[in-house]
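Feature request, filed as a ticket because there's no other form

It would be nice if the structure record came with a short human-readable summary line next to the tokens. Right now we just get the raw output. Example of a typical job, pasted below so the devs can see what we mean:
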Amino acid sequence: MNHYDVKQEVTDKYSLRGRVFHKLREDILSGKYEEHEELREVAIGEELGVSRTPVREAFRQLELEGLIQIIPNKGAYVTGITEKDVKDIYMIRSRLEGLCARWATEHITKEQMDEMEENVYLAEFHAAKGQLEQLAELDNRFHDILYEACDSKMLEHQLKDFHQYVLRVRKKTLANVNRGPKSNEEHKKIMEAIKAGNADLAEQLAHQHMINAYENMVKNGLHEAYEQRTGSDGFLRPDTKKS
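Raw output as currently delivered:
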């Protein structure tokens, strides 16, 4: 009797649509497509080497996530992540990161703990040398290690999505040389709490870390990055600054 692999069937059935969706989402979040830019099914299909059907299906999924707006008889337009979305993401994420740190305290492996410690000490080294690009990469990796250590694929997936959503905005607003080292100090305290098996403290510190990150973004240009006005067609457009 042939073995029926439902996972393989699902993968085969949705892999094309999934690839198109993830590629478009990545392009929107990375800034390849600007806000309010029209996404054209035919052009995207040709670029990705697919028919219009998986592109159309990806559009529907992107609309559900709030990344595009489909206007009947007009087209699909990029909406991206709004200033309110950023605040909402950080407030939700602060709770989830706390839960993640609590579970990581219970489930982290020795290898993950070793990598987390190495990450923190490497970040201290680069911070001392003012190497902010390397510091940002290590910051991202610290959170990935934390997500993996919580031993929950559902929570890990959700947190990685949220992290990806705000990555571009973080790059715009985290040019402050003080936040990188401060962020790593907070990482170190989280790591030490996890290593000590103190789940309550780890949860509290991880929660506050996200609050601090959001407050830093506000201080360093989040609102300015989202100054907008409403156009006659109902779309929000960037303000035109007077010279």
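Something like this underneath would help us a lot:
The beta strands are 38-39, 68-71, 75-78, 228-230, 236-238.
The two ends are 75 Å apart (CA to CA).
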